[in-house]
Write a structure and sequence with these properties.
Aspartate Aminotransferase, domain 1; 458 residues; single chain; Aspartate Aminotransferase, domain 2; alpha/beta; 14 strands; 40% helix
Length: 458
């Protein structure tokens, strides 16, 4: 390929050996795991692209910060540093640490949702929807239609369809909509960003009806960089400037610090409303810990505070997007069906087009993830019908996108590792006609993709 890609803006200071396994070893490992890559032992994995959540490499400054952990039960100085970082970069008034993003989702859902409510959002995410539904809400997808077509090269596939949002308001009334859940970026659409114009328009419409807008800000720095690259008028803005404007079109956010925060554990709930903050702080004490540490140790709050500042360095985040694009470009050049445009944290294989002969209820994405591991020891994740789960009547949710996510951890792998991944997938694509589907052996009632077990249809 003639395209030039940005070199790593860091140098390697410490290494961790990784396993190189044989085909026979992998066959036994995937059988033990019930053909579910979540259940593989880490020592059986060569290149681990299961997730970018908590799998990041921390910097020397973050490691130094761990040694400055103030483990006081209340009033930790590390909390004040985290609070300052969130206020500096996001602009929110109140910050409540949680053990990770789903801790923040749990608290937000409990304080905001009443049974019978509707929560609109730009495509569901697994844990987010689970918390909303467990508290009595119905999730309603209001993402633009382009997001459901993997072949379309739309620059902001994460955008909310304002007509869909207005239709829901007209249908159920604004009083039944506690907040709009706006993900920046949209994971299950392929890591797709939301434009600043769309955020501005959504917030304006929401304010007209007194509806709050809550960001899932887990990968907001990636979204800010996409805006800088793709949206007119922002090419000369800094990442912090773009982030500040983004967050001004919301009333708060849930955040998993395990992604853009560049740490291995932690998250937070950020809010502007004083009354909502007081309700949330009361629940933090019940589920997480004191409002000044939540579910985190002081050392981890310090590492996250430093990681947030590091994440907005343009050289870092631009390379982050380039590294993901490199893998996607290699696969696309070989004719492998992927979600376009290439997202910010992962390359998504279109399993329906990869295995068109496998029906969706035979779990083609789950089969593809298992086969990729067998082929080369690369671990990936299903993001299709298995992740979508079942509705209240026990029927499968059948998403239009049946995907396998190749998630790139931050500052962990090199372009050479991604070449191994690309070569393996290309080889697998050439053998695609021989693949078979899977069937359930065990299925959990909630968030089944984490612990489900399968066996081959053949």
């Amino acid at each position: 390929m003639d395209t030039k890609y940005m070199a790593e803006p860091y140098k390697i200071k410490m290494v961790e050996p990784i396993a190189v396994t044989t085909r026979t070893q992998r066959e036994e490992a995937i059988r033990r795991a019930g053909y579910n890559t979540f259940l593989l032992e880490s020592e059986d994995v060569y290149i681990d692209l299961l997730t970018d959540s908590g799998t990041n490499a921390m910097s020397d400054q973050q490691w130094a910060g761990l040694m400055q952990g103030d483990e006081s039960y209340a009033g930790s100085r590390n909390f004040r540093n985290l609070q300052k970082a969130v206020r500096d970069l996001f602009g929110y008034k109140h910050v409540l640490p949680t053990h990770q993003g789903r801790g923040a989702e749990n608290i937000l859902s409990q304080i905001a949702i009443q049974p019978g409510d509707f929560v609109p959002g730009n495509m569901y995410f697994t844990t987010t929807r689970a918390h909303q539904e467990l508290n009595g809400a119905t999730f309603r997808d209001i993402i633009i239609e382009e997001a459901h077509d993997s072949t379309l090269d739309h620059p902001f596939k994460g955008n909310i369809d304002l007509a869909k949002l207005q239709a829901l308001i007209d249908e159920v009334g604004p009083e039944r909509i506690p907040y709009i859940c706006l993900a920046v970026t949209v994971n299950l659409a392929g890591g797709q960003p939301v434009s600043m114009q769309n955020m501005r328009e959504v917030y304006s419409l929401a304010q007209r009806y007194g509806i709050a807008v809550m960001f899932d800000a887990t990968r907001c720095v990636e979204n800010a960089c996409f805006i800088k690259h793709r949206e007119p008028g922002y090419q000369d803005k800094t990442i912090p400037q773009i982030l500040q404007e983004m967050c001004s079109y919301s009333d708060g956010c849930t955040m998993s610090g395990k992604k853009d925060g560049l740490v291995n554990i932690g998250g937070f709930l950020a809010l502007n409303d004083d009354d909502l903050y007081q309700k949330a702080a009361s629940l933090v004490v019940v589920y997480e810990g004191m409002p000044t540490y939540g579910g985190m140790a002081g050392r981890d709050m310090e590492a996250m505070a430093r990681g947030l500042y590091e994440s907005v360095d343009y050289n870092y985040i631009a390379h982050r997007l380039e590294q993901v694009r490199y893998l996607g470009d290699r696969l696309a050049a070989a004719g492998v069906p992927i979600v376009k445009p290439i997202g910010g944290h992962a390359v998504f294989l279109d399993a329906r087009k990869f295995y068109p002969h496998i029906p969706q209820d035979h779990f083609p994405a789950q089969a593809l993830a298992a086969n990729l591991y067998l082929q080369s020891g690369v671990r990936s994740m299903e993001r299709g019908i298995v992740s979508a789960g079942r509705d209240k009547n026990g029927n499968h949710y059948c998403p239009k996108l049946e995907l396998v996510r190749l998630t790139i951890p931050r500052r962990v792998y090199t372009y050479a590792h991604l070449d191994v991944v690309a070569d393996s997938i290309i080889d697998l694509y050439e053998e695609r006609d021989a693949a078979h589907g899977l069937k359930f052996v065990y299925e959990a009632p909630v968030l089944r993709f984490f612990t489900a077990r399968f066996e081959p249809m053949s």
